[in-house]
Amino acid sequence: HLQDFVMQIVNVHIEPQATMNIKQKLVRDIKAVLTDPQSGVSFVGGDFNFTPRDEERFRHHEAKGYNTNEPIAKYFEEELDMLIEIAQDNFTRLHYEHGELISAARLDRWYTNLPALDLLDAKPSAVVLHNLYESRELSDHSPISISLCPPSRAPPDGQHIPEWVADLHEFPDIVMDIFADMPHEDCPFKKL
Prior knowledge:
Layout: E1 6-13, H1 20-33, E2 40-47, E3 57-59, E4 64-66, H2 71-79, E5 84-85, E6 93-97, E7 100-105, E8 108-112, H3 116-121, E9 125-128, E10 144-147, H4 163-166, H5 171-180
Parallel strand pairs: 1-2
Antiparallel strand pairs: 2-8, 3-4, 3-7, 5-8, 6-7, 9-10
Helix pairs in contact: 1-2
């Protein structure tokens, strides 16, 4: 019933200089307007200006990561725990001071309230649209494009165990251990 289906897109920009109270209010406002997953899908994306809690920014002159432990990251992840990131691994912002590259981070992201299995069926893809290291003419951020494909009515092609996995010496024993833990004696997999 497409006429009853809602697709909502929320564009986010969290100002880094805003107080924690203002940032928290914005997160609560986003949560308040999200579409109920039973009647539609929400996509929340843009410039969050913080990294997820389990991610680091990258310091170029030291060639290593550092965690900023931004309190808004914890608040966002706890308050909007119904959202799943449509992830991509590339940096989306470079930070320069006096013309010198200081750090890189993945500040721009997209999330959805689609249930995890539905999202996986849709084969999500997220990519940055330009290489930050080549051009900063428009912005010091790189936009992200996301795409979802309609789920197939047939099982997806290519769903198999990669040959290199099956060739591992431990593979048969691991499979047998899994089958040994099957809860029912009449499990059809045990007959394999």
